[in-house]
Amino acid sequence: MTALRKPLALSLVLLLILACFFAPFLWIVSNSFKPQLGIFADVTPISWRTFLPLEPVLENYRTLFERTNILRALLNTAIVSAGQVALTLVLCAMAAYALTRIRFRGAKAVFVVILLTFLLPVEAMLVPLFQVVSGLGLNNTLLGVMIPWIASPFGLFLLKQAFEELPRDLEDAARIDGAGHVRIFVSVILPNVKVPLLTLGLVTFLFSWNSFLWPLVIAQSPDIQLIQVAIAQQGSPTQLPNWGETFAGATVATLPLILLFLLLQKYFTQGMAMSGIKG
Amino acid sequence: MKRLFLAVLAGGTALSAVPALAQDAACTAEPVTLRILRTPGNYPYPAAMEAWQKEHPCVSFEVNEVPFAQLGDTIAVQAASDDPPDILVYDGPNTQSYAKAGILLPVTDYLPEGWADDILPATRAEHSYEGEVYSPGIEQTTVAMYYNKSLTDAAGITPPQTLDEAWTWPEALAAFKACQQGDPGAPTVWGLGPTRFGNGQPGLVYQDLIYQRSNGDPEADPESSAYKTFWAMAPDGSTVEGYLDTPEAIEALTFYRALFNEEAVAPKVGIPNAFFDGKACFYIDTPAAGSALLKDPVIDWGITPIPYFKTPVVHTGSTTIGVTARSKNPEIAAQFAVDMSWGELAYMNVSQRGNLPTLKSLFDRFPVYQDYPMKVFVDQLEHWGQPRPPSPYFAQYDRVVTDAIRSVAFGGDPEEAMQNAEREVARAMRR
């Protein structure tokens, strides 16, 4: 009896935790199918009605796509996220290679300094970043949105851990065959760190897709707005917010991330575990 | 892969090119692009801009938008750079803060003849600093109390419709209690609905500082607590000490706390749309709610003036237009800001948006404000309107006092909250 109770109790606890994580998402999706008036009618007291659209409508999605620039924002976000992933992978992999495979004085100090930039909050860097990026003429451009974040300390840390695990023999064998640094990097190192690369790509994509503050400051033109900023455009003190559109926008913005995560979650968990236990 | 990567970069760069508004008139001088930073759906509106462009064919526009909640942060970052926007459409009460910080350019020299006589006094006070006008203003707004007529009729309540019959807060509380439905603590219909301002919780200075201010007296001796209670900050903006924790302020805040606690006629948490969903008898909002209800009357509704304790008062202030001090085109930007706020162009802007104008001469051109219910807003603005305490430290004041009033709504001690708020604002002012 006791043996049965333990798994049951564990299952209940896990279900409860799952519900805590899943309920907000269910609420958002459910509200996106409720009519504008009535969305919050069943918020208190919380019941099953809160999470289910009793008379579902597609009005919020229709007006979202008709009235707002959501498709453009999705396209902009996809371009920025994909570009940021590509540039981050290239830059971090090259830096990790240099710090693990090329011996030079001060390599550890360089790595520590790069890691220390982890400690700087985005808000503290906002003004100098804006000065630099606008000084480069990249204000209000998609390149300006992505470029400050491609040198990722987290990415460097993750890939450096992975590179250090590769046996030196692989590199030595390639060198005997006459390979230089570029060939060793491209043909020997990179093919052996696919999982960390995929993990970094996914993490970077999530970060970029969900970015709000920097895209808000550097890219305000409606033509290059990103999805999170576009969703936040709803409502002001002198206009009533359209909550239905906001929930529909949040649902649309979340779906690509969920799909991507479901497709790549194996690599994501492997990579995260690897970054935690090795080194 | 390489081709794909290059295509993505090329596409991104192409998409990032910002189109300017088209111009059809001939330009014979140096072309100028005015960069405008505003919140979505805000003025200046295309019709007014195009009309102005006909007179200034060498000027084009680049309009950038950020959500209202992030406007202050964006201005703080961009104004500090070498590449600021030329025109800011910002929250009016921040005028003095921006002027003191060197963000705004004074536009006094550009104002047309007759402006000083036509502008609402509250607007002029709000947008001036050390003798200079920093924004001509375009629109004004304030809050009034909406009511669900079906619910008030069912409860046998007839809210006043004119300023001279306005309720006192105790009278309003009696109406809230009579109209509220359901179990105490968990009503199905609230007496006073939750705000939609800020994060939906009570406390915001714009809406809730008027409780304590209305328990003061602007005609009293300037050294008296009644006088200080009304102004809630020294009228010259020099100090806040002794202005927030007066006996009158504490008395009003104790009443305010009861609304959310002992009487429990108002929720502490945000419930968006509660009034429009028929879940609240009364609700405080700007003309935006009335405009929405006029277009789509989902409930039977009316407007009653904001209640008061001793002196009726409502806060004025809305988004306004200014020129950045570091604009690369200061003269044409100042001319644009002033022109957008004057005469026919101001009418075009205000009529598009649906709030009240700042120019008295334009009031007659808005039929919706000539009669009840929307006339209540005009009457309040003319007779009761006061800017939120004008000060170069308003941004800090707004944040600190909002937190203090919110803590009172959540059950905190009014005296302690206001004493702490005074100390914190005073500290910010000394920095």
UniProtKB/TrEMBL annotation, chain A:
The keyword Cell membrane is annotated on this UniProt entry: yes
Gene3D superfamilies assigned: MetI-like
Subcellular location: Cell inner membrane; Cell membrane
Membrane topology: Multi-pass membrane protein
InterPro entries from the UniProt entry: MetI-like, MetI-like_sf
Membrane-crossing segments per the record: 7-29, 73-97, 109-130, 142-163, 184-207, 246-264
Domain ABC transmembrane type-1: from-to ranges: 74-264
General function of this protein: Part of the ABC transporter complex UgpBAEC involved in sn-glycerol-3-phosphate (G3P) import. Probably responsible for the translocation of the substrate across the membrane.
Protein name per the record: sn-glycerol-3-phosphate transport system permease protein UgpE
Species lineage: Bacteria, Pseudomonadati, Pseudomonadota, Alphaproteobacteria, Rhodobacterales
UniProtKB/TrEMBL annotation, chain B:
One cellular-component annotation, GO: ATP-binding cassette (ABC) transporter complex, substrate-binding subunit-containing
Key words of the record: Plasmid, Signal, Transport
BP term (GO), one: maltose transport
Signal sequence segment: 1-22
Transport found in the keyword field: yes
Cross-referenced SUPFAM superfamilies: Periplasmic binding protein-like II
Gene Ontology molecular function: maltose binding
A Pfam family hit: SBP_bac_1
Family indicated by similarity: Belongs to the bacterial solute-binding protein 1 family.
Protein known as: Extracellular solute-binding protein
UniProt organism field: Alloyangia sp. H15
